[in-house]
Specification:
Blueprint (H helix, E strand, L loop, with lengths): L1 H23 L8 H34 L2 H6 L4 H11 L4 H8 L3 H15 L4 H11 L13
Helix pairs in contact: 1-2, 4-6, 5-6
Length: about 150
Amino acid sequence: MKRNVITFGLLITALLILFQLSSYQLFKGNLTTEIIIAVVSIVFFFLGLYFRKKWSTERSTDQKIGINYEKLRELNISDREHEVLQKIVAGLSNKEIAAELFISESTIKSHISNLYTKLEVKNRAQAILKANQLRIVDFSEFSTKVL
């Protein structure tokens, strides 16, 4: 954080110095104000691209931390089973899950049975706890409101 503040402070200082140089016309007419402003804008454009790339890679690594995809592959949980598990964590019933995923209730029951076997649990509550322990579902999507 300190580094970012210092970097932006130095950039603003450099910008002020460039504007002062252009107002005093130390360049004796070789460079006009428009050229100086163009150079400054190009510098800030490339700095913006650099910081955007830097911050977007930091965010993408933070997002990957949420779900342990390696553990999902290790447990052999399919994408559809993972979707069903996410719906279970959201608190939906079999009927609601079937409606959201556009599949039958019996298919949902099959997926849930497979999940119980793969997670080595016996009910929904244990499945949710195990999913949390293994970090295979992103719990940040669900807000915990206290009434």
